[in-house]
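Standup notes
- DV: blocked on the single-chain target, sequence here:
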Amino acid sequence: MSVTTALLQIGELAQRTGASHRTIHYYERLGLLRPVEREGAGYRYYNGEAVQRLEKIAALKKLGLSLDEIAQVIDLYFQDASGIKGKEQVLKILQAQLQSTRERLGELRSFEKDLQANIVRMEGLIAEARDKRK
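- DV (later): unblocked, structure below
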């Protein structure tokens, strides 16, 4: 990943990436993003990698990764120029999510059957009670 050398203030970074100031600060607190320089007055400056990191975070969120999961993989994309290590880790996360989803679907199917049985049982009890009233 090529990184430009021009430094950006937070407003410029927000404008280039579509991320809000608040989001950028939040990602900093989570360790997903780091300014390369801080001025005495508290101004933060970012380089081109920050733009790429924000773009990568957005792409990973679209894949369904949580910010905690993104924190586990984001640095891998910038340590390995091929991105293979990051992609392998994302694949593991997605496979785990699929397994978890399948398990939850099984539980929901079982719950659906229980609900159907309870509805039939309750309808029977109501019908029986009505028959006794006659």
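- Follow-up: The chain has a mean pLDDT of 91.
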